[in-house]
Design goal:
It holds the Pfam family G6PD_N. GO terms for molecular function: glucose-6-phosphate dehydrogenase activity; NADP binding. Keywords: Carbohydrate metabolism, Glucose metabolism, NADP, Oxidoreductase. This protein has three domains: 85 residues, no CATH class; 145 residues, Rossmann fold (3-Layer(aba) Sandwich), CATH 3.40.50.720; 293 residues, Dihydrodipicolinate Reductase, domain 2 (2-Layer Sandwich), CATH 3.30.360. It is 34% helix and 17% strand. The protein is built from 18 helices and 17 strands. A hairpin with a 7-residue loop joins strand 15 and strand 16. It binds NADPH dihydro-nicotinamide-adenine-dinucleotide phosphate and ligand LXAUTJHC. NADPH dihydro-nicotinamide-adenine-dinucleotide phosphate (NDP) binds next to helix 4.
């Protein structure tokens, strides 16, 4: 049900509801609340909740209250809410930053802040998910007037049609913004920031102050900034949290050092380590898909699954970001974090509940069953110029003669009874033929004997673009013959959920941090075990353990190295037979 279903008549449905006997159940059946009705929605819900005296549902993966496009957490009792995800209250420590909240963005002059952080904050603001009296403060070394900062902060907000409502919201959003110039290593800048924050907070009604510090910063200043905030800007009484961006180190030792340095100042509970793939709708969907469907749960093991591929493809190269990229490479940039997170959710055992600690306990357990990646299981590539597009080495920001891989395919093995012998192939590359991130689970052959040359089942979870889940399967060819043909069951989101707004990953994650939900953030031990898996191969690539391997070349805009097909076939992957056509199959005469 959509509150204000007729979007051009926002008041009508609400007016109707105001005359009805609205209950919590009615309210929690709304999928989308029009931004203009959000204030009313919240007020009614609060009133009804206080009458009921029930605990709100926690913000948990897959539950409606998590997403920025759905109503705020529904205050319905667990059992009464269909499809609600239950969590163990015992392990929850969430304190929601409801009011008296300031969000401080460090590195506010930078790329991430402009492209992701501020647009996400705007998205949350527009949909009514930010605390009502919130203020947002940018902090960086760059000297900027407030107007310039505001213009920069809203420059990536999408409003191609000049929608009047969005334009008005941008105006109101700018009213929340202010900017402080200061350095990262000098306490005086942080003192000035604290004075500015206290000025803002002086207008708040309560003494409790909530400060959410977002590090949109390069990692070389993480520790200094963490220390300076703690020493100069820590609000007491109040709730203080830091959101830290990747990269969290370059290998096991540096990650441990970074973790322990940050821990001197910030507790695990106060720390939210972002891996933005954990905020993506289809990644969050994996838990629901696996544990809410007995059909899926029943075939999720080595008896049914032959091999799994998790693929990340980008159609552009490093283009000016080569300086950063070259000291990291594609494995640190994408595989060790984003793809490994997807893998752990795909393969973990059923958590006791959907609480943050229960989920992360299971993720850590499965990651600990993965031995370090071997050289034999790894294929490395680097793109070369093609069709007028420059090769990696032609990027001026890349060191000459670099052997940094821009493509990697590597196979992981899980030594536990569920997954023993199943290859998990992680593949990621820059400058490929398309933009796509997907999980492809290929099932085993059916028992032979009654069919010739029958295609294997494959379950595909397309994370982006155009979110979808489809199962490639065999069906009888329509008509009088009895022949099997490859077809699929298709859940393409924009067809099935025509009016759904899929939240941006950063919207979902910032909301989680405000609500105190760690489920979709990386815990310290998760990080440690992730680095254990990748460190030996990274040291080999870096040349710290002998000669550096040379990546094979692949053309800009291609599918990747020519060796890739043979690589995935080595692990049992079989291509679907060539008569399969998507989305429409022509049967011919
Ligand atoms: N950009 C992206 O799309 C993504 C970025 N990230 C991560 O987010 C973080 C920020 O990324 P991004 O915004 O691209 O980074 P930027 O290089 O744009 O840096 C952000 C800001 O930090 C300051 N800064 C830059 N270099 C230094 C330095 N050497 N010492 C001190 N301050 C510096 C600058 O602000 P000033 O000089 O004004 O203080 C700059 O505006 C990084 O950890 C990155 O890995 C993660 C995912 C995607
Ligand atoms: O963290 C990173 O992710 C982006 C890809 O993110 P996506 O949400 O667009 O899939 C990648 O381009 C970048 O190199 C990497 O640092």
């Amino acid at each position: 049900m959509i509150l204000n279903q007729a979007r051009n008549r926002p008041g009508r449905r609400r007016a109707q509801l105001e005359n009805e006997n609205v209950t919590l159940e009615t309210l929690s059946s709304f999928h989308v609340v029009h931004p203009r009705s959000m204030g009313w929605y919240r007020a009614v819900k609060e009133k009804l909740s206080s009458k009921r005296d029930v605990k709100p549902l926690p913000a948990t993966p897959g539950s409606q209250p998590l997403t920025a496009s759905s109503p705020p957490p529904a205050a319905a009792p667990h059992a009464a809410t269909r499809g609600a995800v239950s969590s163990s209250d015992a392990s929850r420590d969430e304190i929601e930053m409801k009011d008296n909240t300031v969000i401080i963005v460090f590195g506010a002059s930078g790329d991430l802040a402009k492209k992701k952080t501020f647009p996400a904050l705007f998205g949350l603001f527009r949909q009514g998910f930010l605390p009502p009296d919130v203020k947002i403060v940018g902090y960086a070394r760059t000297k900027m007037e407030r107007d310039d900062f505001c213009a920069r902060a809203v420059s990536y907000i999408k409003n191609a049609q000049n929608d009047a409502e969005i334009t008005a919201s941008i105006g109101k959003f700018k009213d929340l913004l202010s900017y402080v110039t200061g350095s990262y290593d000098d306490g005086a800048g942080f003192d000035a920031l604290d004075v500015h924050l206290k000025d803002i907070e002086a207008k708040y009604t309560s003494k409790d102050r909530n400060r959410l510090f977002y590090f949109a910063l390069p990692p070389n200043v993480f520790v200094t900034v963490a220390k300076n905030i703690k020493e100069h800007c820590y609000a007491e009484p109040g709730v203080n949290r830091i959101i830290v961006e990747k990269p969290f180190g370059k290998d096991l030792d540096s990650a441990r050092e970074l973790l322990s340095s940050l821990k001197q100042y910030w507790s695990e509970e106060e720390t939210y380590r972002i891996d933005h793939y954990l905020g993506k709708e289809m990644v969050k969907n994996i838990l629901v898909l696996r544990f809410a469907n007995v059909t899926v749960g029943g075939i999720w093991d080595k008896s049914h699954i032959s091999n799994v591929q998790i693929t990340f493809k980008e159609p552009f190269g490093t283009e000016g970001r080569g300086g950063y990229f070259d000291s990291f490479g594609i494995i640190r940039d994408v595989l060790q974090n984003h793809l490994l997170q997807v893998l752990s959710i795909l393969t973990m055992e059923r958590p006791v509940s959907f609480s943050a600690e229960d989920i992360r306990d299971e993720k850590v357990k499965v990651l600990r069953s993965i031995p370090p990646i071997t050289r034999e299981d790894t294929l490395l590539g680097q793109y070369v110029g093609a069709d007028g597009k420059p090769g990696y080495l032609e990027d001026e920001t890349v060191p000459r003669g670099s052997v940094c891989p821009t493509f990697a395919a590597t196979t992981l093995w899980i030594n536990n009874p569920r997954w023993e012998g199943v290859p998990f192939i992680l593949k990621a590359g820059k400058a490929l033929n398309e933009a796509k991130v997907e999980v492809r689970i290929q099932f085993k052959d059916v028992t032979q004997g009654i069919f010739d040359d029958i295609t294997r089942n494959e379950l595909v979870i397309r994370i982006q673009p155009s979110e979808a889940i489809y199962l490639k399967m065999n069906a009888k060819t329509p008509g009088l013959q009895t022949r099997a043909m490859a077809t699929e069951m298709d859940l393409t989101y924009n067809r099935r959920f025509a009016d759904a707004k899929i939240p941006e990953a950063y919207e979902a994650l910032i909301l989680d941090a405000l609500q105190g939900d760690h489920s979709n953030f990386v815990r310290h031990d998760e990080l440690d075990v992730a680095w254990k898996i990748f460190t030996p191969i990274l040291h080999w690539i870096d040349g710290t353990s002998g000669t550096r391997p040379s990546p094979v070349g692949y053309a800009y805009g291609s599918r990747g190295p020519a060796e890739l097909n043979a690589f995935v076939e080595r692990y049992g992957y079989q291509r679907t037979n060539s008569s399969y056509e998507w989305p429409v199959t022509k049967l011919g005469a």
